[in-house]
From TrEMBL:
<dbReference type="InterPro" id="IPR013196">
    <property type="entry name" value="HTH_11"/>
</dbReference>
<protein>
    <submittedName>
        <fullName>Transcriptional regulator</fullName>
    </submittedName>
</protein>
<feature type="domain" description="WCX">
    <location>
        <begin position="241"/>
        <end position="315"/>
    </location>
</feature>
<dbReference type="Pfam" id="PF08279">
    <property type="entry name" value="HTH_11"/>
</dbReference>
<dbReference type="Pfam" id="PF25583">
    <property type="entry name" value="WCX"/>
</dbReference>
<dbReference type="InterPro" id="IPR057727">
    <property type="entry name" value="WCX_dom"/>
</dbReference>
<dbReference type="Pfam" id="PF13280">
    <property type="entry name" value="WYL"/>
</dbReference>
<dbReference type="InterPro" id="IPR026881">
    <property type="entry name" value="WYL_dom"/>
</dbReference>
<dbReference type="InterPro" id="IPR036388">
    <property type="entry name" value="WH-like_DNA-bd_sf"/>
</dbReference>
<dbReference type="InterPro" id="IPR036390">
    <property type="entry name" value="WH_DNA-bd_sf"/>
</dbReference>
<dbReference type="InterPro" id="IPR051534">
    <property type="entry name" value="CBASS_pafABC_assoc_protein"/>
</dbReference>
<feature type="domain" description="WYL">
    <location>
        <begin position="143"/>
        <end position="210"/>
    </location>
</feature>
<feature type="domain" description="Helix-turn-helix type 11">
    <location>
        <begin position="6"/>
        <end position="60"/>
    </location>
</feature>
Amino acid sequence: MERIERIHALHRILTAARYPVTVQRLQEDLECSRATVYRDLAYLRDYLMAPVVGNGEAGFRYDTSEGDRFELPGLWLSSEELHSLLAAQQLLMRSGGGVLSNALAPLQQRIEKLLDEHAGGRRLPVERVRVIPHRTRRLDETAFRAVATAVLDRKPLTFEYRARSTDERTRRSVSPQRLTHYRENWYLDAWDHERDALRSFSVDRISAAKIGDVPARDVADEELDQHLASSYGIFSGAPKGWATIVFSAKAARWVADEHWHSQQQGRFLADGRYELKVPYSAGRELLMDVMHYGSDAEIVEPVVLREQAKSMLELALSNYGH
């Protein structure tokens, strides 16, 4: 048992005890040596200012005049919780192009200090938490912070936006709604005032962002979900229909455990293949994901999406015709 768990357990025992608790019982309950029990009692009394009274012969308890009012101070988590928090913090620091590294550095230091205090000074091998970014895009830290601040402070935002599809540069004025992390990249969901509609912007294409002073326009969560999350992909829009994809029995072992969409419908077929149905609007992103499975995936419906997949495969094959 790590020290932090022992301190928690010791506090619970002394809080619940109506009579002094012997050192022998504390050894058994805490699963530690006699010397460790005394060290933990001293730490609880001298460092955490707990009202511990008693001695090794009669046993220990909390002073009844103060015990009911004493609580463990500060942030107290189990070692497993701290380890999980440290792993999650490493994930945030090492993904997204490191844009959050500076902001999260104090948190990492605090977590490491807590672990050091309650794990006997044992060094944690943080390098064993391995995070491999995949196809992440470079972010401008200044732009990212401006976007995040505008979203959370509910302020309007103006910025230069360079569309990836056309390379066109435009000046946009928006009311930020949500900051979305999708496939290891960040997107701003916002109300575009010039176009009078909801739009999603890739944060890595935003520059020269300026936060306004007046309150931003708020869009109801139901409207946001209907427009931005009802169809497949990040730039979804209202669904135009449902796509049915059938995966081979080999690929089924992976696809059956994957989350493609909140409204997806999946089932195993009698021959071991897997049928997946998802709502979609713009088919390009869905087609790209289906193509990822190569010959292990087949779009069955609708016919128009099936024909688009066929055309993409024919064009790809033509690249190898020479």
